[in-house]
Structure formats: structure tokens, C-alpha cells
Design a protein that fits this description.
By secondary structure, the protein is an alpha/beta fold. It is built from 17 helices and 15 strands. It has one domain: Amidase signature (AS) enzymes (Alpha-Beta Complex), CATH 3.90.1300.10. It is globular, with a radius of gyration of 22 Å.
Length: about 550
């Protein structure tokens, strides 16, 4: 399944001094194609060679497009004829394997969907093809976007029953500590794999996020990313968790890369298959690159949410303070803040988020978690939000219905039964407690509870959260360390731009064996704003990136 050696037999000899895809940005690839220093076929050839060389080490791809070279040839012919489809013409892009493609399987990493090809393509897949992209592969992911195994045996990130574990190219070794189940020593982040983009298996990749699954892998793999406003990109044809928070978004090596991809992913008009797409209006020509200004930090107001996100903070009902950064992380973020000031940004510090410091437990977001495992089942879920488990049953069943007769299972109940019947085949290595607590929801009887919890999510994250602090301080963005702000921004569906920046020790929760030296972990910085503020966030992120340029490539052997 992972092998692409059959494709390598079709490769033509690479020309001398050909363009090198390793660490090449989309902007650089665009220029090389225009200047005839490389063809799309040669790009695909080089990427396939890198996949064949390092895939067994990294497990970045679940499927490789067997017709990638044919598609590249067609796009090269069109280029010679002066026909360019769009800004990604002839550039290889990978998709998370919960995004529909009809020329490759779409499995969500679930064994029940192994080898399954859906009857229609995702809207964003069509948009990418219309922009000229070659969909070169489907990436590994945490199975069903990490809504399978919660407590008591939570599924590790980037594990799925179809392909196993993915590995971080910045330290692609297994955890050597006693009791390890083969997971990576350096986490790969959320359920959207950034592994292959970091390792130059393709020019960029598209992930999806419900709460952290774009921002976390971007952070862990030293990538730029945009987690867009929910509704900016159509979700039609993407396996869901809950429409309340789901969105797709791009990961790349530079801010310019993800700006180009965002424009290609967004539809020119609202998608009738996704009513949320009326929320934001695209910029003229869906061109986000015009917001990439080197002096984009001058005069912008950026808030620092010290309490909980940078420094430990008191949490109602909890004896010891929670949150905060480790010493090395705090040092990296202090440097980032200093650079922002040097570049002309106005720093508001502290700009604490009201719901993160509220002494009333009913108004404090840090004691209001997602019901995410057996400990959030009915009868145990009074103090957690049911939005995910309710939304999963509602939206997953609707997605299955959209597949028609070809659906391998017809309902969430069927999937749970299939998994149980195939447990010995590896279907549910970490159990399926999240599917269990979703399936116990009654979409009619529990609707009032869901609506109340959704309203509380929005109140704590937006009205008493991000909106409150941004309006009070007239902020253009909030600065978060790495993906620390992903959860609070995800609830109201707010956008964030991630920028690669620093490295910190991988200390681990348990000591490593004597003689084992873990390699450092990336730590990015992220800029969050209110709905539909991607243009401003890209301006800020690009300005910071140009002032720092701290991304370093992983060393693969």
C-alpha cells in the first residue's frame, strides 16, 4: 500500500542540474516551472523518489496516486500550450485521508473503510484540481480524526488501523521507554499529518481540524499553516467529527505557501452542499498573496494571554495552578515577543482571556472540557461539553448517507459492531470509547443538552473569551505558543496562522533510558483572530516569518 516502487519503474532520467524539490517552496516551484527549469513530471519523479527512499522510516502516506506521472504529463502539455489552470498548476499536493478522492481510497484510517473509494470528490479536491494541483498522495492521520479511542486507553496521535504510526522527521525513532507500544519518541501532532511536507514528499498538504489537528502537526513538524474560519473552505466530502467546529486547511513550509493554497482551496461562491460557506467573503480573485507584506508587523496590536497559556494560573476547584510553559518554551516565546516589538508591533502584555482567569467555575473555560471518552459517557457528563459526541453521531451518519449504496457500513452503530467483530484484526487497538459515547446520544432527546453546551462553548471561548479580550484591547491578533490556543479558537471556529520558529528539548513525561538522547522538538508561534480575519493574520504571520526565517529542514538518513 505504501510502496511506490512500481511508479519508479516509469521514471525518466532526470536532467543534469535539475531543480531540487527538497525544501522548495511553492513560490520557488512556481518560478522554476515558469522559467522551464523543471517540468511537473520531474517534480513528481523527485517526490516519488523521496517517498520511496524515506517512507518506510516515516509512514507519511497511506496511498500514492498511481497516475501522478500521467497527470503531470497532461499538465505539462497544457503549460506548453499556454493554458494554466491556476496558481498550483502542475504542483504536487497531498490530502489527509479523510478528504474524498475518486482516484484513490478515502479511509479516514479506519479498517472498515480500507480500500474504499467514495462515489464523489470533496469540493476542495475539485477546487485544487481546478487550480492545477496534482493530488499525489493521501496522508496518514489519527484514525477518524482522533474520534475513536478515548479514556481509558486514548489513541496516540497519528496512529490508525490502516497504516499504523506516523513518525516525526525531526526524530523518526520509536519511543525506547519500557511499556512503549511502538509510538514515535517525538509526537507528530494532531490528526493531520505534516510529516510528508516537512520531509519534502510533496509541496504542501491539506489537513482538517476540529480542535488542533492542523495547528498541532504544523507546530510539531516546523511548518506554516492556516487553520481557517469554519466555513471559509467547504467541508463537503470530508469525513466529519462535528460541523460545529470542522474545517480543512493548508500546511506548507512557508507562510506564502499556505496563502497560495488557501486561495486554491476556497470556492469562488458559497457551496450549496455546505451552508457554513456563506460566513466569509473571499478576497478578490481568492488571492491571499497580496496580503503578504514584509512590514506587516508595523503598528499591529498583538495581545499576550499570559494567564494559563504562558504562565501557570489558578483554576477554580483545583488545588495547584495549571497550564503555563516550560522554561525552554518560555525563553523561545520571550524572544518571539522581542522580535515583534523590534518590527514595530504594539504588544499588549498581559492581555488575559477573561474565561481563562474567571474565579467562577461556571465561567472558566479551563474546567469545561470536551466529553471525550468513557469518563464522558451518559451519567458522567454533567461537567463536560457533549458537542463533539452529539455532533459526531449527527454528522457521521449524514456523511454515511451521502455515500449511498457503496457505504461499507450504514450507521455509526454498524461501524461499532464491525470494529468489535474485527478487533483481532486490529480494528480497535485502543478501543472505541469515543464512538461508544457518541452512539449513545439520542439526537432528539439530547438536542436541548447539546444546544445548551454549544451555547456555553461559544460564551466561554468567544463572548467571554477571544472576543472580549480583542475588543477591550483593540487587538489585531492574539499570540499563542505553538498550538496552545487551538482549543479555545476552535470552539467559535476562529482562524489561526502558525509560523515555524524555535526548538525546545523533548523532555518527555517519563525519563528516557540512559544513553538515549532525544532530539529537540519544534515550537512555532501562532496568531489568532476573530472570524474571517485570515488576511490580517497572514500579513502578521508573513511579517514575523520574514523577520526571523527560522525553519530548518529535518535531517533524514
Amino acid at each position: 500500500m505504501r510502496s511506490c516502487f512500481g511508479l519508479l519503474l516509469l521514471l525518466s532520467p532526470l536532467t543534469a542540474a535539475t531543480f531540487n524539490v527538497a525544501e522548495a517552496s511553492i513560490t520557488e516551484i512556481q518560478a522554476a516551472l515558469k522559467q522551464k527549469r523543471v517540468t511537473s513530471r520531474q517534480l513528481v519523479e523527485q517526490y516519488l523518489i523521496r517517498i520511496a527512499t524515506f517512507e518506510d522510516q516515516l509512514h507519511a502516506a497511506l496511498y500514492v496516486n498511481p497516475k501522478a506521472l500521467e497527470e503531470a504529463d497532461q499538465l505539462d502539455r497544457e503549460r506548453k500550450q499556454g493554458k494554466l489552470r491556476g496558481p498550483l498548476h502542475g504542483i504536487p499536493i497531498a490530502l489527509k485521508d479523510n478528504i474524498h478522492t475518486t482516484n484513490m481510497p478515502t479511509t479516514g484510517g479506519a479498517l472498515a473503510f480500507g480500500g474504499y473509494t467514495p462515489p464523489y470528490e470533496a469540493t476542495l479536491t475539485k477546487n485544487l484540481r481546478a487550480a492545477g494541483a496534482i493530488i499525489i498522495a493521501k496522508t496518514g492521520m489519527t484514525e477518524l480524526a482522533n474520534w475513536i479511542g478515548g479514556a481509558p486507553t486514548p489513541m496516540p496521535t497519528n496512529y490508525n488501523a490502516v497504516g499504523g504510526f506516523g513518525f516525526n522527521p525531526y526524530d523518526p525513532r520509536r519511543d525506547p521507554r519500557d511499556g512503549s507500544d511502538g509510538r514515535p519518541v517525538l509526537a507528530t501532532g494532531g490528526s493531520s499529518s505534516g510529516i510528508g511536507t516537512a520531509a519534502s514528499f510533496w509541496a504542501g498538504n491539506v489537513g482538517s481540524e476540529t480542535s488542533g489537528s492542523i495547528l498541532s502537526p504544523a507546530n510539531q513538524n516546523m511548518l506554516a499553516a492556516i487553520k481557517p474560519t469554519v466555513g471559509r473552505i467547504s467541508r463537503y466530502g470530508i469525513i466529519p467529527i462535528t460541523a460545529d467546529q470542522d474545517t480543512a486547511g493548508p500546511l506548507g513550509r512557508t507562510v506564502a505557501d499556505v496563502a497560495v493554497m488557501l486561495g486554491a482551496l476556497e470556492s469562488a461562491q458559497p457551496d450549496p452542499n455546505d451552508p457554513a460557506t456563506i460566513r466569509c467573503t473571499p478576497p478578490a480573485g481568492r488571492d491571499y498573496t497580496k496580503f503578504l507584506k514584509k512590514d506587516g508587523l508595523k503598528g499591529v496590536r498583538i495581545g499576550i494571554p499570559r494567564a494559563y497559556f504562558f504562565d501557570k494560573a489558578a483554576v477554580p476547584g483545583v488545588k495547584e495552578p495549571r497550564g503555563g510553559l516550560e522554561e525552554a518554551e518560555a525563553k523561545v516565546m520571550a524572544e518571539a515577543i522581542a522580535i515583534l516589538k523590534q518590527q514595530g508591533a504594539i504588544i499588549v502584555d498581559p492581555a488575559d482571556i477573561p474565561s481563562a482567569i474567571d474565579p467562577d467555575a461556571a465561567n472558566n473555560i479551563n474546567v469545561w472540557n470536551v466529553c471525550g471518552g468513557a469518563d464522558g459517557a451518559k451519567g458522567k457528563d454533567a461537567e463536560c461539553s457533549v458537542v463533539f459526541k452529539y455532533g459526531m453521531k449527527r454528522d457521521f451518519n449524514l456523511w454515511l448517507q451521502s455515500l449511498g449504496a457503496s457505504a461499507p457500513v450504514k450507521t455509526l452503530t454498524d461501524l461499532r459492531a464491525w470494529n468489535t467483530a474485527h478487533e483481532k484484526a486490529g480494528a480497535i487497538k485502543y478501543g472505541q470509547s469515543r464512538l461508544d459515547i457518541s452512539d449513545e446520544m439520542d439526537l432528539v432527546a439530547d438536542k436541548a443538552r447539546y444546544e445548551a453546551d454549544r451555547a456555553k462553548d461559544l460564551r466561554l471561548s468567544a463572548d467571554h473569551g477571544i472576543d472580549a479580550v480583542m475588543k477591550a484591547n483593540k487587538l489585531d491578533a492574539i499570540l499563542f505558543p505553538g498550538a496552545n490556543g487551538a482549543g479555545i479558537a476552535a470552539k467559535p471556529g476562529y482562524p489561526t496562522v502558525m509560523v515555524p520558529f524555535g526548538m525546545v528539548p523533548n523532555t518527555g513525561r517519563r525519563p528516557f533510558p540512559a544513553g538515549f538522547e532525544p532530539k529537540p522538538a519544534p515550537l512555532g508561534v501562532s496568531f489568532t483572530g476573530m472570524a474571517c480575519s485570515e488576511s490580517k493574520l497572514l500579513e502578521i504571520g508573513y511579517g514575523f516569518e520574514q523577520a526571523t526565517k527560522r525553519r530548518v529542514a529535518p535531517v533524514l538518513k
